[in-house]
Amino acid sequence: MEMNSPAPHRRPLGQILIAQGVISEDQLRIALLEQMKSNQPVGKLLVSLGFITEATLRDALGESLGKKSVDLSHAIIDPAALRLVPQDLAKRHRLLPLDYDRARHRMTVAIADVNDIVALDKLRALTHDDLQIDTVLAGESEISRAIDQYYGHELSIDGILHEIETGEIDWRSLAATSDEYSQPVVRLIDAILTDAVKRDASDVHFEPEQNFLRIRYRIDGLLRQIRALHKSYWPAMAVRIKVMSNMNIAETRAPQDGRISLNISGRLVDFRVSAQPTIHGENVVLRILDRQKGIVPLDQIGLDDPQLDQLKLMIARPEGIILVTGPTGSGKTTTLYSVLNHINEEGINIMTLEDPVEYPMSMIRQTSVAEAAKLDFANGVRSMMRQDPDVILVGEIRDADTAEMAFRAAMTGHQVYSTLHTNSSIGAIPRLLDIGVLPDIMAGNIIGVVAQRLVRRLCPHCKKPYQAESHETRLLGLADDVPPLTLYRASGCEHCEYQGYRGRQAIMELLRMDADLDELIARRATMREMKRAALDKGFRSLAEDGLRRVREGSTSLEEVARVVDLTERM
User: Fold this and answer.
1) Range scoring the smallest mean pLDDT among 43-47, 187-191, 349-353, 537-541
2) Could you tell me the sign of the dihedral formed by the alpha carbons of 329, 331, 337, 343, in that order?
3) CB 132 within 8 A of CB 159
């Protein structure tokens, strides 16, 4: 790896390594004396002297140069990028193509010397000089190993499947912790995970049936079958996934959980893995946690200006509890992370208790609940109260003990965030009553409740306009004699894989508590009474927010009706 002189405003490599406690001043002095004799980069000398590893050098050099660094031993390479760059060019300039975005004509390249202008010019020349290149830093030996590993092997799913059909599986190499890329099953799992990430899937399902293996991706909230393979492939594939996620490969009769971290297309992606025994074999589901997409700015979560102002007023309150409700997969975690990111600053201590932690956040103390350590939500909050927190996030209020601790924290000067599984914001009140929270405790301590769902966005390339019919006009709350209204419905094209939709957006309702609602809660008023009081103050329901999206043309009436009950409006 080349050590180029850092820019004047960058900290020197040696100072970074000393500050990290990796080397001593004496070790740096020895390396500098050797540099006077050999004229080699000081970073390379520190490695050759055995003071640091190449991985340590890579990360420190990345910090010094202000560049991202990548661990190629946990990276998955895009076959399209490999096809564009000849192996001899990659070897000569110590670089490895990681990802190629055809639509944006952009390539991500791992390189040992980020100042190798000749290498970048040659890459652009391969694609008529208009290629946009993003570089990340990697170690020389890492790149050399990766070039030998990836070049010369079939990396497409169809090609790998053909290779499996005509060859034999080396079970010993599958059970090894190292990546044996000569094994097609290893490449097959990598190819499937890469494909899922590139298609913006949230989950990958491996579902064994009696005679075949079904592979499905959850894309935009709906499962879609991608492949059906012969069942004989599955045992080797399951072993490979278990090895990657540190599961017990010999255990097939009990549920297991694991986690995988990979670098895909130049970015770090985590997979939460769950294996469940079924009558036809182990069912494995991987939840994709893409850190690049993890934190959405608060003003981009889908609220219009009045809603955003309401939410900001809620989170400006110094104490009390804010709840986010909705079914699994409705975006509650994304909303909570956006709020925490918005309020995160040096002057406050934010602590979270999650099951599990999905996205690491800087300056926030995050803890996963753990059955092995007997740490549940209630015990975790009790412990956090002794950590001088200003803000506490409790992943979910599931029982009376957790609810008691969450409200106790809210009543003692803390701002508390949590989630509930209810169908609406107003439905959070009877749910808390069922759990065992007293009305007098709720009244005055709940700042507000956010309920949300995710609806699919119409593909902008193929959505089709049409004139709204009379029953649709009534659903939208418009009179029959209004001028014809243009709505849009799904069609399908190559941009959306012929689904008619691409991506999702949130629809939300915000219930901000006030003295009148607190009084209704204290006297156990019905949901109907509370909703009427909220509507009098401008409350907008999930259905109304969904229909706002329909009028905007960003989604269809059919899609909103799929996730929200519109029958009351008929």
Assistant:
1) 43-47
2) negative
3) no
List the alpha helices (DSSP H) in 2-156.
Answer: 13-19, 25-38, 42-48, 54-65, 79-84, 87-92, 117-126, 140-150
Helix (H), strand (E) at residue 504: strand 501-512
Question: Which tokens go with 369?
Answer: 């609940």
Residue type, 311: L
Q: Determine what percent of the chain is predicted with pLDDT higher than 70.
A: 93
pLDDT digits (tens, 9 = 90+) for 199-211: 999 999 999 999 9
Per residue in 249-260, pLDDT (tens digit) is 999 999 999 999
Q: How many residues does the chain have?
A: 570
Cα angle for residues 291, 315, 295 (degrees, 5° grid):
10
DSSP 400-411: HHHHHHHHHHHH
pLDDT at 42: 85
Residue with tokens 């006297």: 523
Listed residue (255, 256, 291, 296) closest to 271, CA to CA: 291
Cα–Cα dist 536/523, whole Å: 19
Q: Are 301 and 335 in contact (CB under 8 A)?
A: yes
User: What is the DSSP code (8-state) at residue 422?
Assistant: -
Using DSSP, state whether 539 is helix, strand or coil.
coil
State both tokens at 444: 């005055």
**Which two structure tokens, joined as six digits, stand for 558?**
């059919």
What does the block give as tokens for 460? 């902008």
H/E run at residue 307: helix 305-315
The answer to whether 264 touches 197, Cβ cutoff 8 Å, is yes
The helix/strand/coil state of 113 is: coil
Q: How far apart are CA 94 and CA 119, in angstroms?
A: 9
Cα distances (angstroms) measured from residue 210 to each of 180, 225, 239: 30, 17, 19
